[in-house]
Amino acid sequence: MDNFLYEYISGSEFYIKNISRVFHKIYKNYRIINPHKQNTYRLLYLSEGSVKMMFEDSELRGKKGDIILLPPGDAYQNILCGDGQWEHYVIAFDCNLPLDHATVLHTFSDDTYIISPLKLAYDLYQTNDYGCHLKIKSILYDIFYKITAERKKQYIETSFVKKAMVYMDRKFNKPITVKDVTEYVGYSESYFITKFTEQTGISPKQYLQETRMKRAKEVLETGLYSVSEISDMCGYKNIYHFSNAFKKTTGLSPSQYMKNK
Question: Are 233 and 225 in contact (CB under 8 A)?
Answer without folding.
Answer: yes
